[in-house]
């Protein structure tokens, strides 16, 4: 599996996923089939793999074991909290008044910190 990221593709061998039916986890019908792909290896062998986007990769990972479910959920909560903290610090730059207030506050803070150095 690859690094987490919005645009990252995850390639997973069907052999690894043998413990669970992919359609049961990510959806019935042809939905699972659209993630089937082939991957070539250095020795000219080709192997069937599933190539999942982040959502489906997380779902498959969480179906693998209860311990992984807990780790994925806990990591998700931590990331959400970090995003929330970052979001609270950023003003809505689409609102000119809010952007101007944020700029003025930063300007005053910078000026005050320069004055305090002397």
Question: What is the fold's blueprint, element by element?
Answer:
Elements: E1 10-12, H1 22-26, E2 36-40, E3 46-52, H2 54-64, H3 66-89, H4 96-117
Antiparallel strand pairs: 1-3, 2-3
Helix pairs in contact: 2-3
What do you see in this structure?
It is a single chain. The chain has 118 residues and is of the alpha+beta class. 53% of the residues lie in helices and 13% in strands. The protein has a three-stranded antiparallel β-sheet.
Which tags fit this structure?
4 helices, 3-stranded antiparallel β-sheet, alpha+beta, 118 residues, 53% helix, disordered N terminus, 2 domains
Number of beta strands: 3
Q: If you average the pLDDT, what whole number results?
A: 77
Helical residue percent band:
40-55%
Characterize the largest beta sheet: strand count, sense, and whether it forms a barrel: 3 strands, antiparallel
SSE class: alpha+beta
Tell me the domain tally. 2
Order of helices and strands: EHEEHHH
Total of helices: 4
Roughly how many Å is the radius of gyration?
A: 23 Å
Query: What's the end-to-end separation, in Å?
Result: 54 Å
């Amino acid at each position: 599996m690859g690094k987490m990221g919005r645009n990252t593709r995850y390639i997973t061998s069907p052999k690894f996923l043998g413990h669970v039916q992919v359609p049961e986890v990510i959806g019935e019908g042809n939905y699972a089939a659209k993630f089937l792909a082939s991957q070539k290896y250095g020795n000219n062998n080709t192997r069937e793999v599933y190539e999942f986007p982040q959502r489906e990769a997380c779902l498959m990972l969480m179906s693998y074991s209860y311990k992984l479910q807990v780790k994925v959920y806990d990591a998700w909560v931590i990331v959400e909290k970090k995003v929330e903290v970052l979001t609270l610090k950023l003003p809505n730059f689409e609102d000119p008044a809010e952007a101007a207030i944020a700029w003025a506050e930063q300007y005053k803070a910078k000026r005050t910190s320069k004055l305090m150095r002397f």
